[in-house]
Write a structure and sequence with these properties.
seven-stranded mixed beta sheet; 1 helix
Length: about 130
């Protein structure tokens, strides 16, 4: 049974940083994993994802500020977030799904329905 538990959220001032973690159980290294976020009253937005082979994909508006990584030995997914601004406020969710080829992953990760989701961790950026 797959279980995803996010942690590391909190309140920071603009310009601050946070590192989110997602502890995964029941997920092997053959899974792709990703981060998504949802602001209050808004739809879910893709943030970044990582293929089973280690290649990553992210959204242009967050490129250079957010970095996704995974530690397969410890079954943990990370999201390092720098230079946070109020528009980054929202609930951040970890997701996992069985992986296809990298090229299919690249085409579909931001819009597909991922099979497994965590409960989320809140990030609030305000002064």
């Amino acid at each position: 049974q797959v279980q995803l538990v996010e942690s590391g959220g909190g309140s920071v001032q603009p310009g601050g940083s946070l590192r989110l973690s997602c502890a995964a159980s029941g997920v092997s290294s053959s899974y792709c994993m990703g981060w998504f976020r949802q602001a209050a009253g808004e739809g879910r937005e893709a943030v970044a994802a990582i293929h089973k082979d280690g290649q990553t994909a992210d959204i242009g508006s967050m490129k250079g500020r957010f970095t996704i990584s995974r530690d397969n030995a410890n079954n943990t997914l990370y999201l390092q977030m720098l230079s946070l601004n109020p528009e980054d406020t929202g609930m951040y969710y970890c997701a996992a799904d069985f992986c296809d080829s990298y090229w299919y992953f690249l085409l579909t990760w931001s819009s597909k329905e991922w099979a497994y989701w965590g409960q989320g961790t809140q990030v609030t950026v305000s002064s």
